[in-house]
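Now produce a polypeptide, keeping tokens residue-aligned:
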Amino acid sequence: MSKQKQAITYLELWDLGVRREPSSLVGQISYPHLSYCISSKNNGIYNNSNEKIGLLLAVVTETEAKTQTPWLSGENGLYYLNLEGISVDGAMLNVSSSVFNMTAGGEGGVFMYSATTHTMLAFGAFSELRSRFQADKTPEIVLHFTGLEFPVSADNTWAVNSHGHYCLAILPSFAGFTIFGMYHYRTSTGIPASLPTMASTLIFSLVALISIITVPSSMSSPKASVKGFEVRLIHRDSPASPLYNPRATRADLIKSSGRRTIARQNYFNWLMSNKTWSRYSSSYVWAPIDQSPGDYIMRFKVGTPEVETFGVFDTGSHLTWLQCEPCEQCFSQTIPIYNPASSQSYEKAMCGSVVCNTASGARCPNPKGECKYEINYMDGSFTEGDVATETVTLEDDGLSGSICLQNIIIGCGHSNVDTTAGYPAPGIVGLSRQPSSLVNQIPLHRVSYCIPSKDKGNHSSVRFGSAAVITEEETQTSLLSGQYGLYQLSLEGISIDGTLLNISRSVFDMTGDRGGVFMDSATTFTLLAFDAFIEFKLGMMNALSDFKPVTDVDRLFPLCYDYHSGFRLDITPEIVFHFTGLDFPLGDENTWIVNSEGNLCLAMGLNEGSSDYTIFGMYQQQNVNVGYDLDNNIVSLKYGDCE
């Protein structure tokens, strides 16, 4: 073969159609075999002008049977595989094989794709995999295909970023499918068997090694490892809150709480009815711009030098974002709008980067341009702007110092419209279970909070890492994995005075995009699925049959009783939520509220959305230590002193 003809065998696979379709190059030539062997970057064949790896397609060998697994048929001509599971250090992940299967509608599945650099795992599998990285040693990951166990070597698992940090080179897929990317079938170059330890200043995380630095108030530069910290939460109606309205009456505050619950219900309805799971869809809904939801706010500082701001404490949002200059369109806020041009640590993300691929709500109108996010809502509210990384500084409420979190993914909103009245918070502090939330960007996967009742205090704290309080086993129930990245629980039933209500357990189970039970920090009052609510309201009326219900003048609560008719809290029935492994009784303070007329009303309502889910709201969580152990998928609920 001449040198000219031989050169044709060196091709760039991603620029060449080699899918399993008749029109592809493989489909048009008479050779039924195709193979390639990608060297690592250090040992590969490079064209110095574009640094693309050369591939030799002419040499095909049939390897022994133990290295083979069958292709699966697919409608789009991709190379589908049957992945049965993943193990880490010999232990299989607790992931159903159905996570990797293609649905009858042609969605999901596992396929190899030469134009994708990093492997992208379906989110349920990714969350479970990421939770296994506990120690300072690199574990062995094995992909269990049908008839083939494929170990992923350390250097095909980890990548070194521009700061010299080791980063997990596997990303979450939010679209349900799994892609086996080119990075994970290269030849070996040798990554050391030991990574920086969890006790070091730099701790490995999903996107990058995020530096967590303690800066004592009397010092400006020393660094120390951080295993846990706590940040103060402030009730939005407290005099200490930047949203405090001294002219608001008690009736105003109750009505505002009700409106926040309704607004939050609209957000969840949109979240669960959203059929477009492409992360680059302009209708991708992840964080509520309507700042009315949420009773508690977090103060924090952003940028270098630091600028103080605050956001709603939100376990249902996946992205931390704030309004930013220059403003194309911004709503009024009580503090100056953040200007990223003044920060030395602000860095926009580019399309195709790990940051862009991780950020919820990201889109790329120009694939080679800057990464953007856009979130729209049916009430006309929206936020859009740049996806970026920035330094976020939190004041440790338990120490005389600050916690500096570097390289945190944020959304910087340059065009924001809020249709609600008043002065909303400048942004959201996203604390959901999705990778781009704040809690998942730092490697301290334990979170707890304990909110006092309104008459006992106006502030509390959220605790991270070793500072988080996860109470004893008898107060625990399991966190379920779900496609929405929310804190989902298994609720088996509800009883009133020891009698279990006639509610099918299936009412609380999630099926497709309907049902489910979620804990949420930005919903004030618990909302029950329709069938559960009807039975619950009837059961409460029967238990209180000696009293006649009255209409709620505030038109917020479904069941009220005249306080002047002899109705008292000490005669109300006991309500118990029966979670899997945990019977959780509601105290009087968690069940009843006084409306603007002085009557006692049941502080729970009906979810009027079509998705038929149940939300366990913050009013029912007051005076309760709520602890999330994300590594072990556990939530603990225990009454205590939250002051």
User: Anything to note?
Assistant: The mean pLDDT is 75. The chain has three domains: 1-62, 210-463, 474-639. The helical segments are 3-7, 25-28, 123-131, 250-273, 354-358, 438-441, 530-543. Residues 210-463 form a domain with the Cathepsin D, subunit A; domain 1 fold (CATH 2.40.70.10).
